[in-house]
Write a structure and sequence with these properties.
3 helices; flat
Length: 92
Amino acid sequence: MHKQRVTVTVDEDLLEAANRAVDEGLALSVSEWVSEAMARRRDRDGRLAVMRRLLEAYEAEHGCISDEEIAEQAQQDRDAAASNQAGFRQTR
């Protein structure tokens, strides 16, 4: 893949983290560390765009999802997670 040199301004703590990653052998260079972060952001933004389109299509067919429905689903998710965690503890 063709690479292009750019100049960016970043927070000092992020640059320190990138340099630390290089020093610890977690990245070959700051450029690689930044490129990987940018690729993850690109991929995340792409997934969010797909989810947004799916949600829009769902709501166009079934109507808007209410705050109550979201709260109910969140509680069901917490209950399921707690149940899974309890089952995990019992198998240890």
